[in-house]
Structure to design on (225 residues):
């Protein structure tokens, strides 16, 4: 899953980016509100983590413009300790949650994953598709035969397909959701990850199906199929 982090404190932005990367997220980072506003007009994110005290364009204005464009991406705002008025304004403008700085990294990860789940219509941390089970807290995929051993990229692709709940996801959309702006990916990269996943899911009762012109989707089927 790809996130946008908007934080002008370079040291904090770097530490948050590294922590979120270790949690399995691809992170794009902007250090001012104007750049964040621009990238949000063209890029698709699973979540925006938004500081409010930003240069060039403050976070509340970034949020206001985002919602004015009817962009429903979940937004988690970061506020200074004790800034109740900012939190209230942020929530009124359409933020989904907030954390005060300095924030606990485990809590940040938990809130981020909860917001992403809810944006896809899942209330529980345990997600199921046919025989495939996913614990979004431990980030573990499991089949009846046992846990799935996946590389980070394979995990990211399967997570996106699972979140879509059996709906098709184009190759381009998959690439946008798992690669950051600074990462290069070949046109065949997604096909390679899908090919590897198909081998690991073979005979399990869940498969990745290609719909010509539409992309890939998860499909539950008989385990023997």
């Amino acid at each position: 899953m790809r996130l946008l982090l908007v934080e002008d404190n370079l040291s904090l932005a770097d530490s948050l980016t590294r922590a979120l990367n270790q949690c399995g997220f691809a992170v794009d980072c902007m250090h001012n509100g104007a750049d964040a506003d621009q990238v949000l007009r063209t890029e698709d994110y699973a979540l925006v983590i938004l500081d409010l005290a930003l240069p060039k364009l403050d976070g509340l204005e970034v949020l206001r413009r985002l919602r004015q464009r009817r962009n429903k991406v979940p937004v988690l705002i970061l506020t200074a300790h004790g800034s109740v008025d900012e939190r209230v304004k942020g929530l009124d403008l359409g933020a989904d949650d907030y954390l005060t700085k300095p924030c606990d990294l485990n809590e940040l990860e938990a809130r981020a994953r909860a917001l992403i789940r809810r944006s896809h219509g899942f209330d529980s941390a345990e997600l199921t598709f046919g025989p495939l089970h996913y614990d979004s807290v431990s980030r573990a995929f499991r089949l009846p035969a046992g846990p799935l051993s996946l590389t980070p990229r394979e995990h990211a692709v399967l997570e996106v397909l699972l979140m879509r709940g059996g709906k098709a996801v184009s190759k381009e959309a998959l690439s946008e959701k798992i690669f950051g702006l600074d990462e290069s990916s070949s046109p065949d990269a997604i096909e390679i990850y899908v090919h590897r996943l198909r081998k690991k899911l073979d005979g399990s009762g869940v498969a990745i199906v290609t719909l010509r012109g539409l992309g890939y989707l998860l499909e539950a089927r008989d385990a023997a199929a």
Remarks:
- The radius of gyration is 18 Å.
- Residues 105-119 form the longest helix (15 residues).
- Helices lie at 10-22, 33-39, 59-68, 84-92, 105-119, 152-163, 171-178, 189-201.
